[in-house]
Amino acid sequence: MNAEELHFSTRFDGITGSAIREIFKMIDQPDMISFAGGNPSPSALPDAVAAEIAQDVLQRDGKRILQYGATEGYPPFLESLTAYAEKAIGKKMPSVLPVTGSTQAMDLLCKCLINPGDTILVEDPTFLGNLQCMHLYEANIVPVPGDEEGLVPELLEEAVKEHHPKMLYVIPNFQNPTGRTMSLSRRQTVARLAAEYHFVVAEDDPYRDLRYHGTSLPSIASMDQDGWVVFLGSFSKIISPGLRVGYIAGDSTILRKCTLGKQSSDLHTANLTQAIVDQFLRRDLLPAHIERICKDYKEQLDSMLSELETFPEGTSFTRPEGGLFIWVTLPEGIDAKPLLEEAVKRHVAYVPGTHFYALGGHENTLRLNFSNSTLPQIHEGMGTLRQLFREHLG
Amino acid sequence: MNAEELHFSTRFDGITGSAIREIFKMIDQPDMISFAGGNPSPSALPDAVAAEIAQDVLQRDGKRILQYGATEGYPPFLESLTAYAEKAIGKKMPSVLPVTGSTQAMDLLCKCLINPGDTILVEDPTFLGNLQCMHLYEANIVPVPGDEEGLVPELLEEAVKEHHPKMLYVIPNFQNPTGRTMSLSRRQTVARLAAEYHFVVAEDDPYRDLRYHGTSLPSIASMDQDGWVVFLGSFSKIISPGLRVGYIAGDSTILRKCTLGKQSSDLHTANLTQAIVDQFLRRDLLPAHIERICKDYKEQLDSMLSELETFPEGTSFTRPEGGLFIWVTLPEGIDAKPLLEEAVKRHVAYVPGTHFYALGGHENTLRLNFSNSTLPQIHEGMGTLRQLFREHLG
Q1: Between chains, do A66 and B51 touch, taking CB under 8 Å as contact?
Q2: Which residue on chain B is closest to A264 by alpha carbon?
Q3: CA distance A347 to A27
Q4: CA dihedral defined by B329, B333, B337, B338, rounded to 10 degrees?
Q5: Is B68-282 a CATH 2.60.120.290 domain?
Q6: In chain B, positions 259-278, which contact chain A (CB-CB < 8 Å)?
Q7: Is A45 in contact with B66 (Cβ distance < 8 A)?
Q8: Are A62 and B55 in contact (CB < 8 Å)?
Q9: Which residue has the higher pLDDT, A246 or A393?
Q10: What's the pLDDT tens digit per position in A97-146?
Q11: Is the CB of residue A184 less than 8 Å from the CB of residue A218?
């Protein structure tokens, strides 16, 4: 056929694909030092344990695991997940639904709630993968500025009053891309505004367990009385992203719609991957595993931060207490997007910050991931970037 | 919150969930004889082999399998799948994308192509799960009548001229729910009309390998010159539905859009489940496995057909050459929907046929599955249904 004979749906207008996914392809070379993705460290991926568990669950419950399952989840996992989620969220949620990675959680929430033109408020900047999801639902995406403590309450309330949002999307812990953590009082404000103005808060919390400094703050969902806050959880960063297992927890009416939406999305999440995560929970393997990876990630974070100290004057950066990312603001006039190509030639990759802004701009920003590189790689790669940015000072 | 404070998206208007999924819950009792689902027989689920393979692939390639993967697929599987799909379709397709069950294939195709109000032509009756998917994209669903040979060509062309469809959805082999197979000449007509009138054909072919009588017919995709036919394949019926692995094969432009859509749906299909199916293909385990299950399913089909011979006068039914389903038309005046409740009380389940009609009606029809019941269960369950329907003759 000729391209002009086929008309794609309008939801794809302007969609060119996730910048990160495209960068992944560009940097798929063995000697690349990648600060680009949000990949766990290879040493954090429990392949030996997973191999033993996969064999075990298929031997013990293979007929059920290989058969069609309920959209609501593989029963043993639904049980262990419900207990796990209650602990993570700090509150018993009315309903929990296993999903195929928290990517699907966002897709299902948009499917349930968003008509074309409906407003979603987002942090500015925010996770670009979910921005693409919102675009595909033809949402009116309105960015709300934040500072070191997260969303600025006055600006949030102003945006709520002006735009009557259907949803607010936030990542309160070690935000992607900035690494920032929302303060306690701002979390309370978000919960209060949602109840007052009737919008759903999608609280996306995949990094919660990866804390290296400071103390844990309560979830926004735990401050919610009326079911406006929906919690999105994930096992991607603490067990494996390749298994694609996450969950949604929240109000039963909303979760029921998500379940109906999931029937037509993928019927159910693979029983096998649910059964594997179930065993990690039942055997209580996570605490020791998380302790080990946090120890490594903390060293990697601290190393990258100390490298950043010696970057060209005028460079600023966040000091995350956890998660996977540091956010860097270069001196005005340096554009991180065209420089990426040059960096890749020198075998180092990052994600230009402009991709995380709903309205673009902010060309002098970039996101660095520290979890997927060894200490020597961090030293070498940061040296390369330091040199590169020095060469391009105005 | 109160329900009236929250407004769900309009795409959910009228969506009450898959009738089959709801029936599943109703019949989840140990002594139930279920002719309702499309479940493979428990003996057809290769749990021991899958256990060995899962352990093997995680031991050999665990770090890659547990890490983020490409939306385009786990590389070894993409390779073996491309070869497999070429053989199944009888033609080298420009592009192949692994998906999370062919449920997701339909979702992605609708995502790419369907604006609210766009017309999708469907067989009448057709697979209700995909009808729900089309409803969620707010498609204008237009059913086209068929007969023993599939869609009636004159009625199809008439519908095409009148409705200018974006898509035609067909299951040419052992159709769900009727068990009918589309004749060669009608396949040629479908391919010709698509090229002439410029609509996409979604050729859904999950049952192709489950043939017990007669000879295989070429796919519609193999008759297509210009890329209008997109082929949806699945490993659910020949390996395991619980693994959720299917694929889309077709024109590269369409597949590229599906890939972008998949980025926001679930990022990628779990690498582990792709790796397991990959090993089934690489080790060439399918031919012997399919031969074994076809032998069993043929006996089950033949047994159910001979039971149907003794159903009340005026009952008619299809004689499928393969697949999983027989379609039964009861004497006028018997309504299969309210009778299901009575059947379930007697520990037998089926799916009322009305659910498969885009516009409802046809209350005297029902769908029977034979793959998930043993020969004694078929004998007993069909005896129960025969008695039940006799009691309710007008």
Answers
A1: no
A2: B133
A3: 8
A4: -150
A5: no
A6: 259-261, 263-273, 276
A7: yes
A8: no
A9: A246
A10: 999 999 999 999 999 999 999 999 999 999 999 999 999 999 999 999 99
A11: yes
* Beta carbon pairs, A and B, within 8 Å: 260
Flag whether residue A75 sits within 8 Å of chain B, measured between CB atoms. Answer: no
A288 touches chain B (CB under 8 A): no
pLDDT tier at B6, thresholds 50, 70, 90: confident
Per domain, the residue ranges of chain A are 3-46+287-391, 47-282
Compare all CA atoms of chain B with the CA of A117 and give the residue at the minimum distance.
B9
* Chain A residue nearest residue B253, CA to CA: A3
**Interface contact flag, B6 A198, Cβ < 8 Å:** yes
| Edge-to-edge strand ranges of the sheet holding A365-369 | A316-317, A325-329, A365-369, A351-352
Q: What is the CATH number of domain A47-282?
A: 3.40.640.10
The rounded percent of chain B whose pLDDT value lies above 70 is: 99
pLDDT of B3 over the 70 cut: no
Q: Do domains A3-46+287-391 and A47-282 have the same CATH topology?
A: no
Closest Cβ opposite residue B37 in set A54, A68, A113: A68
Q: Is B78 on the interface with A (CB under 8 A)?
A: no
The predicted-structure confidence for A315-346, as pLDDT tens digits, reads as follows 999 999 999 999 999 999 999 999 999 999 99
Token pair for residue B256?
Answer: 């590229």
CA angle (A118 as vertex; A367, A235 as ends), nearest 5: 45
pLDDT higher at A24 or A213: A213
pTM: 0.97
The DSSP call for residue B162 is H
Distance from C-alpha of A145 to C-alpha of A125, rounded to nearest angstrom = 8
Give how far B111 is from chain A: nearest CA, Å. Answer: 7
Q: Which of residues 112-141 of B touch A (CB under 8 A)?
A: 112-115, 118, 129, 132-133, 136
Tell me, what's the ipTM?
Answer: 0.97
Give the residue on A whose Cα is nearest the Cα of B16: A260
Question: Of A299, A294, A246, A323, nearest to A38 (Cα)?
Answer: A323
B1–A contact, CB cutoff 8 A? yes
The whole-number pLDDT of residue B53 equals 98
B132 contacts on A by Cβ (under 8 Å):
263-264
Nearest CB partner across the interface for B103, out of A66, A228, A264 = A264
The CATH number assigned to the domain with range A3-46+287-391 reads 3.90.1150.10
Distance from CA of A372 to the nearest CA of B (A): 11
Gap from B82 CA to chain A (nearest CA, Å): 20
